[in-house]
Amino acid sequence: MTERSPVLDVPLGRPAPQRTSPRVLAVHTITFQQARRLVPVALAVIAGTGLDGGRRTVVALAVGVTLVSLGSATLSWWRFGYAIGNGAVVVTRGLLSRSVRTVPLDRVRGVEVEAPVLHRVFGLVRVRIDAAAGAVGNKDEELVVDGLRREDGDRLRTALLTRRGHPASGVPAGDAATSAGPPAEEPEELISRFDNRWLRYAPLVGGYLAVPLAAVGALVRIADELPDRFVPDVGRPDALTGTVVAGALVAALLVLVVGSVVGAAVVNWRFRLVRRGGSLIAVRGLVTRRHTELEIDRIRGCTVTEGLGMRLAGAGRASALVTGLGDATRRGQLLPLGPRTEAWALSARLVEDPGPLRAHPPAARRRLVVRAVLPGLAVLAAGAVLTPTVGWWALLPAGAALAVLGVPLGLGRYAALGHAAGPHSLAVRAGWLVREHTVLQRRAVLGWQVRQSLFQRQAGLATVLACVGAGSGGYAAFDVAADEVAGFARAASGSWVVTLQPPP
Disulfide check for 87: which of 167, 305, 377, 488 has CB 3.0–4.6 Å away? Predict the structure, then answer.
């Protein structure tokens, strides 16, 4: 089986599909890429036949699973093809159920080239093509070409991003590329580079704590399974027991801190954000190297995220809001972790700052404080009833503590609120534990939605939602004065919302 370089230029007519590298068979066989769906069937067969579990059985199962994985990977590779021609990218797949996906090049929103560890061993990459191609669900909004050689993956990415601006020229893609020659290498402008000193912010980001938290949980589970002779008697309040407990807490804290730093370093290894022509290119990753390219013309806004701990340390994260981008939370990250000033400078570079945020009315502050205090008051009332009857006196101090803590919580939520409208952009901000400040271009707004609960109507407040075709699809300004809703929407998007008013 010989490899051949994919032919990206095809004549006018039906594109001739090309196969990926046969080396991907080794990757899919080792990872059981196609055979995973057969695991439930295999378990049912094993349970039904009552295999004895001896050495021969184990060897036979290992050989059988490997052969099935190789066979399914071979069939999947043989029936998979891709091509670019006539202003579209075509991907075909399937053995019994055949699928042909055609996406116009002008619907391509971004291209990501991934190189996981096993792919790098075999010199392969995986290309993900973000395509806003209609009403498809979940991850069907992207095309995946898995198993290209590195140079072929770069060639495919260049072909997609170069030709998508000329899909309807009437000239076949291959002829256009041939006549124009290879695209000139455009100069790169370095926008941001990950500084290793920024790793000190990693323990303050919840995402980087997920893996070390799981590790701590596993260690606790292992400790629970230890024989009794290895477990100290915590019932005896001696110095040894206190030392062991303190040592365990310190060890858990070290695992969390070191694990989060290592995780952040692995994910963001040699992160670089550059501008090349009309695209932003982000490269990152140690274990899985990712090359994400976003078209600047598709960027409709930017979000700066600051967790509670990050705000105290002066850190932030910046993400671009791109139309039609799948997995926008990860792929849209332009500054995964860094100083707050760096995140704001990047946001201002992409979207014009609309100006200082406007504070929300005092009624919003009262409403948020009441909402934060109510759970504590409910527990306090339950304690007042249950203490004389069943003796649940602990509810009284717990409810009082929750009610007292609710006051700064409500004030913190109110302090996070804000909105602004400028000549070319608008901004909304909300969140206490995780604060998100989103700046949107005016042209990004596709519509507005105004919501009022019963209590909001009584307080003269409303929540106004800007509907956009990027990011999460909508960004809200909470508890705005009801009589300011129409003015804010008109200033943020134009006269077409002149009739917008809160519901009666």
Answer: 167
84 within 8 A of 96, measured Cβ to Cβ: no
Distance CA 418, CA 358 (A): 5
CA dist., res. 439 & res. 302, Å (int)? 5
Structure tokens at 189: 């402008």
Which residue is associated with the tokens 């700046």? 439
Alpha-carbon dihedral 27, 32, 34, 38, rounded to 10 degrees: 170
Q: Helices 239-267 and 206-225: crossing angle, nearest 10°? A: 140
Phi/psi at 124 (5° precision)? -120, 165
Region label for 36, one of left (φ > 0), alpha (ψ between -120 and 50) or beta (otherwise): alpha
Nearest Cα to Cα of residue 361 among 450, 453, 456, 451 = 456
In this structure, what DSSP letter does residue 390 have?
Answer: H
Ordered by where they begin, the domains of the chain are 196-267 (no CATH), 272-350 (no CATH), 362-497 (2.30.29)
Q: Given CA atoms 152, 327, 277, 269 in this order, what sign does their dihedral have? A: negative
Q: How many CA atoms lie within 13 A of 211 on its CB side?
A: 13
320, 304 contact by CB (below 8 A): no
pLDDT in tens, 294-338: 888 888 999 999 998 899 999 999 999 987 675 666 778 899 999
Q: What distance in Å separates the CA atoms of residue 406 and residue 375, rounded to the nearest whole number?
A: 8
Cβ–Cβ < 8 Å for 338, 284 = no
| CA dist., res. 24 & res. 63, Å (int) | 20
**Under 8 Å between Cβ of 131 and 109:** yes
Q: Which two tokens stand for residue 428?
A: 């909304």
pLDDT in tens, 196-221: 999 999 998 888 888 777 777 777 77
Chain-wide mean pLDDT for the chain? 80
Identity of the residue numbered 177: A
Spatial separation of the C-alpha atoms in residues 339 and 198, rounded to whole Å: 7
